[in-house]
Amino acid sequence: MSVRNQDWYNLNESIPYPLQDSASAISDGGQRLPSHVLVDLNLRFPSTLGRYAFLGACTVSPHLVTLVILGSQSPASPVSVVPLAAVSLVKPVSQYRPLTLSPLAAGVGGWIVLGGGVEEQFAGRFSSPAQSLLSPRAARMYSPLPVESLGKYNQATALTGLIRLVGGNDVEIVKECREIPGVTPSSVACDEGGQEVIVIRLRETVQGSQRNVYDLYRGPCGKRPESGTCGDPQPIEFLGPVVPDCCGNITLELAGCAEITGLVQEAVLDEEGEVVQVDEACGVVVRCGLSLDDMCEELGALPDDQGRLPGEDDEDFCSVYTLVLPEEEAEGAEEPYEETPGCGSLATWDATFLEPDWTDKAGHMYETGGEMRCDDAGIAGALPCLRLYDVDLGTACRQGQLTFTVRSGLYGHAYSAGMVFGWQWVSDTPYFYTAVLSWDGRSSGKKVLQVRYWCGFAGQNVLLQEVETPDVALNEEYTLTVTIGTPTATGAPVAASITGDGVFYVTETMNRFVLQTGRWGLWADHSRATFTAMQVAEN
Question: Of 35, 63, 103, 423, which is the most buried if we count CB atoms within 10 A?
Fold first, then answer.
C-alpha cells in the first residue's frame, strides 16, 4: 500500500530539494549527489558575500560527514566565490534533526538536516553553481544593516548592538529626513522623500536667552574666507592657480637664487626712521640675494662718486644678460624646470626584498621565500602595511612596476594593495601618493584602480583618479605600473595601469606637482597581500 502523506524529510529524500530543480547535481568527477544525504537547509548570508549559494563539496566517509557551502554573484558561473558555511561531524550523526552550521564569514548563520544517505559513502566537489545551486527557500541573502557599529575615528574598538546616543548641554541628537546624493529614498516615514538619518547638531538658542551657541562655538575667523568677510589681513586661499592639499598646505620648491625668509614682527617707523611700534606678523618674503654689481658682467658699472653713470663719458654701458630660447621651443611653449636631477640619472633598479634597505613605516611586512608579505588585515582601524626603500630613487621621470597578489581582505572594510611613490617626510608628517587595487568589502563589492594623494595616515587623502576593474580577482597575480613624466610649469603627467591574464586597465593621465625627489615602496591596507617583484627605471 502506498503512503499518501509522507513526512517532510522523507519526501525530500526522493527529490532534489534543497537543491534548485535546475541544478544538475553532478559533481566535477561525474558522480550524482544522492538526494537522501541533504534533506533540508536554512541559511542566511549578507548580500556583500554574494547573491546565490551553492553546495561546494560533500564528503561521507566511514567516520566523517562534511559539507561546504559557497556564495557566488552568478547563478550559473563561479564569479567571486566566497566560503559561507560548513559542517563537519563525526559518525554516528543525528538524522532528520536540525544541526547548526559553522559560519565561515561574518553575518552568516543557519542549520542543516541530514538524511539516511549519510550511511553510504560519497565524495564530490562542485565548482559551479549550475551543478548544485541551492533553492532560494533554503538559502537566500539579506541586506546588511547600513550602520553596523559606532565608535571613535581610528579606534579599533567600536560599539555594537543597541546603542543609546545622548546629547550634551549645547548638542542635540535627533532623527530627521535628509536627501543624500546617490542614495535612493527608502524611508516610508519621510513624506516628502529622503532618508531617515541621525543628525548631531548645536541646540537652537532658547528664545529670550542672550546666549548664542553659534557665536560661542565659531572658529577663530568665525566667518567665511571665500566670502572675504574675515577682515584684514585676509587669509591666503590660493597661490595663483594652486590650491592647498587636504592638510591646508602648499609646498613651494625654490630654484636658482630664490631664498625664503619668515616674518615674525611688523615695525612702524616715524619720520626720522625710529621704531615707534612693533606688532606680531606672520608671512614670508621670497627674494634673490643679488646686489647691483651682480646684475652686470663687468665691475665698475655703478655710478661713481660724482653720480655719473658709465657711458656718460662715451664709455660703454655694461652688457646685460639676454635670454635666448632654443629654436625648437615655440613661443608660449611650456618651459621645463631647470636642473631636473630626476631625469635621465637612474639605471634600472630591481628590488630584492631580502636586502636590508627596506624600512617599515606603519603596519608590519615580512620577507619569506624572496617575497614580501603583509598579513595585518584582521584589525579594524589598524595602520596600513607600508614599507619604503631607504634609497631615494627620485619621483619625476620615473616608471615603477610592481608584481603582486591580493589574497583576501578584512570583511566590512575597503581593502587595497599596491605601491607608494613620491614619499616625503616634512615636519613629522608624511606626504605621498599611492596607486592601488582596491576592493569594497562593505556593500557593493566594487573593484577599482585608484591613485590617491596622502597627508598623514589618518584618512587624510584625496582621490585623484579611479577606474573600475570588474575582471580582477583575488589570488591572481597582476602587474601595477606607475609612469611619471617630465615636470613642466603645470605639473608632471602621472598615469597608472594594471595588467594580468586577460586584464588591462589604465587611468587617465593627470598633471600633478610632484617633487624631483621621493621614495618608492609597498602598500597594503586591511588586506593580505604578497609582493613578488618591483622595478623602478627611467621613463
Answer: 423
